[in-house]
Design a protein that fits this description.
The complex is a heterodimer of chains A (about 650) and B (about 375).
Chain A: H1 2-28, H2 30-52, H3 55-60, E1 90-94, E2 99-103, E3 106-117, E4 125-133, E5 135-137, E6 140-142, E7 145-151, E8 157-164, E9 177-181, H4 189-199, H5 206-209, H6 213-235, E10 243-252, H7 257-275, H8 281-303, H9 310-334, H10 338-360, E11 365-373, E12 376-386, E13 399-405, H11 421-457, H12 459-473, H13 477-491, H14 497-529, H15 532-539, H16 544-580, H17 590-599, H18 606-634
Antiparallel strand pairs in A: 1-13, 2-3, 3-12, 4-9, 4-13, 5-6, 7-8, 7-12, 10-11
Helix pairs in contact in A: 1-2, 1-18, 2-11, 2-18, 4-6, 7-8, 7-10, 8-9, 9-10, 11-12, 11-14, 11-16, 11-18, 12-14, 13-14, 14-16, 16-17, 16-18, 17-18
Chain B: E1 4-5, E2 14-26, H1 31-36, E3 42-54, E4 58-62, H2 69-76, E5 84-89, H3 96-99, E6 113-114, H4 124-129, E7 130-133, H5 147-157, H6 164-177, H7 183-187, H8 196-208, E8 214-218, H9 226-243, E9 246-251, H10 254-260, E10 263-268, E11 271-277, H11 278-283, H12 288-296, H13 335-338, H14 343-348, E12 354-357, E13 360-362
Helix pairs in contact in B: 8-9
Classes of the chains: A alpha+beta (about 650), B alpha/beta (about 375).
The structure holds adenosine-5'-diphosphate, iron/sulfur cluster and magnesium ion.
Magnesium ion (MG) binds next to helix 2 of chain B.
Chain lengths: ~650, ~375
């Protein structure tokens, strides 16, 4: 017993010793040193990832809801130091209110956060979300009233949202929590418009709008509508929190084409009426007079088209419309032919419609308004209030999140769905290393064993093995991988699907990977086998096992280590390649990031494709350098090169 | 005249008896040749060799390179398959249990047993008893092992002592024995850190660490610098005397064979052509081949060393695949020029190894009764 342990102890210390010497040898070489440093970085990343990764992440990392608080496809924040201007992303989650305010039976919990916008870059979104408890009261429960106000750097305080939580279908009982999330639909845009108009003094100059109170009102309402449309379309309603008016211009259409049209129509009708036989000459004269007055009004506008105000324009038009209508009424009494009357009718209602449209749409009066980002500090306050609480708790058991999606995010930015690239790159490290190592270790292990058996025992076994190696060596791996990969994607279901798909890839790579190793190991074995010291060992009574393990294996080992190390990047590259080709497995790998960039056709987004690309290259480089260093130890003749 | 054809005798001081040993190595045929039904060819490395080695003797196997000396030696160690014949061996006391196994074939009443009748798994103890000193001190030591590890391997294989301390002691003693002193200085070196002579001492040390009684030395100095050959030979002779060893000394150098051995067997193309007392064989060779070999010995006198001598031999050594008929030496034999009447016989009939003087055997029709 003691003998056995003594022996194995010395063996272990010997193995450790030789590993130590190998490390020293590798460290002595420049590529080896670089490789070890890179390897240390990779392994540290992998360790951090393994310690922090959650099973949930593996499943949900590609779902948009997992990353819902991240801006989509934005660069990393350090680009700002390179002169880019991107707004920050803020995600603050509260579990404790910033302050509590009790007033009789009313209790108000407030959560505040100040967001500083210091660049000219509009944030992409702002919202508040939370889980609010229903407070217990007299066996029943109280629903919170939630009010979110934003104090802007220009002093405007906007009551952005008033959320009246409806327990509705959510299983409401005392103590249960309601989920709340603000949206652009519930955003109080009207208030923003009001404040902006007031604060920035958005008015229409009198020389354009004139003085008619009704028309001035109409013009203002057209202007507000234009502001609303702009804020809704360009600023998703909510983002109007971050803007102020930049330029606005209100113009009156100075085009007389329509007016000339009316004028011609009226003149034509007038001529026709004058030629019509009408018994009552007085009526006929009055009809003509009315039409002349209408013509006068329209001509007046045309003559003063460059100076006319909105009010005067529309007043004149409404006079003209009234005169034509009057003419029509007289025509009825005078027995004017039906066709002329109906034309008069059409004309007057046409002009009425013109007026209506000019007072409700930006057709005659055309406002143009643009906004710009307002920089400074924004104080966002979430107030959660309960009414009728007899014994209000000091603290509220709520989760409140204030999210501002900016123009940059994190260390490496985000991909589609807000996927945090740094996180995926980090969690991709252990997966990549595992894929690489498992494949390399397994295929090299099989290759070494098979190669030694083939070379040492020879004969029929050797013959069979060599034929198998020939066959698998001549089958191209990629098509097989693609076929097997697609079958695997359809075959495997359930939670472990991704693992099985990856294991399938590894399996195929191993099946086609051990052959090369075994050929070399066989050749090495054949030559070592003929060494005189092998015969000497046999003469001493060494068994085949002893010769294989003590004499052949140690010499093959360093070669195997070099091949193993060289083989690691291959599997990683294959996984990435297959992912990019569309054979996805579902795990957060570097290849998956590249694959999604391809799927979204966003190869132009450098922060999306460079990090996984660089990681793949760096890992390959690490193992190639390491392989070179080991090769130099294995093959001392190379040292002089 | 009663002619005595050599037959090895089993007496109680005979350590080893090789009897009609044949070792044919099959030549690999290509697949096509197998299909064509070409017959399998053989390298007849050893083709009917018989000799006996006395206990405590130095028995030399001499002959040109390729004549089958090493193969004969390896056959004794069971390092290759033999085609025919038997190896009779008188085991030392320590392996008596193995000898008692029922399948072991007894060859004499003195306790000689046939080495090839022992199943593989029971042969291991014999490896302690019969050892080999190898020709190549460079190749026969694993370059990745320290001297300690190299010498530890036999102890490990045979389970001799278990603790590191004991083994270190044994190895130190073994190194001292071959004059690698202080042993601590050599133990932890790798073979490439030693000179050729030092390495050969390690090879000798490894052969002797298991305390064998029969040692086959396969051209132990042929790959060493001339300057250190003598001291290695001296060491081997000292060890022989001290440890009571029996040597089979394989060499292509007849002069060396005479200097070191009691008896010599001269081999040609897988067969013994002449055997007898070392001095007598070299000083008065009978067989035309032995004569040629003796003529080829360089003159010790440096003044005459560069005189080109006309060697009493023709042509080249034929391939052991196609051994000439009759006397296998006949294509090269110049004795036939003087005795044309023998030509027919020499070409067709193989001469037997006959006793021409007491203990002196020659295989040649010049001496045998036709
Ligand atoms: N394992 C083997 N397979 C085939 N031929 C062999 C083998 N070992 C030796 N031979 C051949 O047998 C002949 C005798 O070899 P060997 O015994 O080494 O001669 P020596 O030691 O006298 O130089 C040579 O022709 C050699 O090529
Ligand atoms: S047997 Fe004949 S050929 Fe052979 S060595 Fe003697 S004389 Fe020469
Ligand atoms: Mg040899």
């Amino acid at each position: 017993m003691s003998m056995a342990t003594g022996k194995s102890n010395s063996r272990i210390s010997k193995i450790f010793g030789s590993i130590k010497t190998a490390f020293k040898e590798i460290w002595r070489q420049t590529p080896g040193k670089a490789a070890l440093i890179l390897l240390l970085v990779l392994v540290s990343m992998a360790v951090v990832a393994v310690v922090t990764i959650t099973p949930e992440f593996l499943v949900k990392w590609e779902s948009a809801t997992y990353w819902e608080d991240n801006p989509v496809v934005v660069p990393p924040c350090w680009v700002n130091t390179l002169g880019f201007k991107t707004s920050k992303t803020t995600q603050v989650y509260f579990t404790q209110p910033s302050s509590t305010d009790v007033n009789g039976s009313i209790v108000k919990y407030t959560y505040t956060h100040t967001y500083v916008l210091d660049v000219n870059d509009l944030p992409k979104d702002l919202y508040v979300k939370g889980e609010m408890p229903l407070l217990c009261e007299n066996g029943g429960f109280k629903i919170p009233a939630i009010m979110i106000t934003v104090e802007r750097p220009d002093g405007i305080i906007i009551h952005a949202w008033n959320v009246a939580v409806q327990p509705g279908s959510q299983n409401a009982t005392c103590g249960s929590k309601l989920t709340v999330k603000t949206s652009k639909e519930t955003f109080n845009l009207a208030e923003v418009i009001n404040y902006l108009v007031e604060k920035y003094n958005i008015t229409i100059p009198q020389e354009i709008v004139g003085t008619n109170e009704t028309y001035v009102q109409s013009a203002m309402s057209i202007l507000r509508t234009a502001i609303r449309t702009e804020l809704e379309n360009k600023y998703m309603s909510t983002l109007s929190l971050f803007v102020k008016p930049a330029n606005y211009r209100i113009t009156l259409s100075r085009d007389t084409k329509i007016l000339e049209g009316y004028k011609n129509q009226i003149t034509g009708l007038k001529n026709r009426i004058m030629n019509v036989e009408i018994d009552n000459q007085v009526f006929k004269d009055r009809i003509i007079q009315s039409l002349d007055r209408a013509l006068n009004n329209i001509s007046w506008i045309i003559n003063n088209i460059n100076t006319v105000t909105y009010s005067d324009y529309l007043t004149a038009m409404s006079y003209a419309s009234a005169e034509i209508e009057n003419a029509n009424k007289l025509g009825l009494a005078a027995g004017l032919p039906e066709d002329i009357r109906s034309e008069l009718q059409v004309l007057s209602s046409g002009i009425k419609k013109f007026i209506e449209s000019a007072t409700s749409t930006p057709s005659l009066i055309i406002p143009e308004i643009t906004f710009e980002t307002l920089q400074g500090s924004y104080r966002v306050e979430v107030a959660v209030a309960y009414y009728g609480i007899s014994n209000p708790p000091q603290s509220l058991d709520a989760n409140v999140g204030i999210i501002v999606k900016g123009g940059c995010h994190g260390i490496l930015g985000t991909a589609d769905k807000g996927i945090d690239i740094a996180t995926v790159v980090l969690y991709g490290t252990p997966i990549a290393l595992s894929i690489g190592f498992v494949t390399a270790v397994t295929s090299v292990f099989i290759g070494v064993i098979v190669g030694i058996i083939s070379g040492y025992y020879g004969g029929l076994i050797d013959e069979i093995i060599q034929r198998i190696v020939d066959v698998i060596g001549n089958i191209p791996t990629l098509p097989i991988l693609i076929i097997v990969g697609s079958v695997a994607q359809k075959t495997f279901t359930g939670e472990a699907k991704s693992l099985y798909i990856i294991l399938t890839y590894i399996g195929v790579l191993v099946i086609f990977g051990w052959g090369g190793v075994s050929i070399t190991v066989r050749a090495m074995t054949l030559s070592i086998k003929e060494e005189p010291y092998i015969e000497a060992a046999k003469a001493l009574g060494a068994s085949n096992t002893r010769i294989i393990f003590k004499h052949i294996f140690p010499q093959v080992l360093m070669y195997a280590a070099a091949v193993l190390v060289f083989n690691v990047p291959g599997a990683i590259l294959t996984e990435a390649g297959l992912s990019v080709l569309g054979l996805r497995h579902g795990w957060p790998t570097w290849g998956s990031l590249l694959a999604s960039a391809r799927a979204e056709n966003r190869f132009d987004v450098w922060w999306w494709i460079l990090p996984p690309g660089i990681m793949i290259s760096l890992t390959s480089l690490t193992f190639v350098l390491l392989g070179l260093a080991i090769e130099r130890i294995v093959e001392p003749r190379l040292r002089t090169l | 005249m009663g002619e005595n054809i050599y037959k090895p005798v089993y007496s109680k001081d005979t350590k080893l008896v090789v009897s009609d040993l044949k070792v044919y190595f099959p030549i690999r045929r290509s697949f096509i040749d197998v299909l064509r039904g070409k017959p399998r060819l053989y390298v007849k490395a050893v083709d009917g060799v018989s000799f006996d080695v006395k206990e405590g003797e130095v028995f030399a196997l001499a002959g040109e390179s390729g004549c089958g000396k090493t193969t004969t030696g390896k056959s004794i160690l069971r390092l290759n398959e033999i085609t025919e014949g038997s190896i009779g061996y008188l085991p030392s006391k320590k392996i008596e249990n193995v000898v008692k196994l029922p399948m072991v074939k007894k060859l004499s009443e003195h306790g000689h047993i046939d080495l090839y009748s022992i199943p593989d798994k029971y042969f291991k103890p014999f490896r302690q008893d019969i050892q080999m000193i190898w020709q190549d001190p460079f190749g026969s030591l694993n370059p990745r092992r320290t001297i300690f590890e190299i010498l530890e391997e036999p102890l490990d294989i045979h389970g001799i002592s278990s603790t590191k301390e004991e083994r270190t002691e044994i190895i130190a003693k073994a190194l001292e024995e071959v004059k690698l002193t202080p042993p601590e200085e050599f133990m932890w070196r790798y073979p490439h850190m030693l000179s050729g002579g030092q390495r050969q001492r390690v090879v000798i040390s490894r052969a002797l660490i298991l305390k064998p009684s029969l040692v086959i030395a396969d051209e132990p100095v042929s790959m060493l610098d001339v300057s250190i050959r003598a001291e290695i030979l001296q060491l081997m002779m000292d060890l022989k005397k001290r440890l009571g060893l029996t040597y089979i000394f394989i060499t292509h150098d007849l002069a060396l064979a005479r200097y070191i051995s009691n008896r010599i067997a001269v081999m040609y193309l897988g067969k013994i052509v002449e055997m007898g007392d070392a001095r007598k064989v070299v000083e008065d060779p009978y067989h035309p081949y032995t004569k040629a070999l003796v003529e080829a010995i360089p003159e010790p006198d440096p003044q005459r060393r560069f005189i080109i001598k006309e060697l009493p031999i023709k042509g080249e050594v034929p391939s052991p695949i196609n051994v000439p008929s009759g006397c296998r030496f006949h294509p090269r034999c110049i004795a036939l020029d003087k005795h044309p009447e023998l030509a027919e016989l020499c070409k067709t009939k193989e001469p037997p190894l006959i006793e021409v003087a007491p203990g002196r055997y020659v295989a040649c029709w010049l001496y045998a009764k036709k």
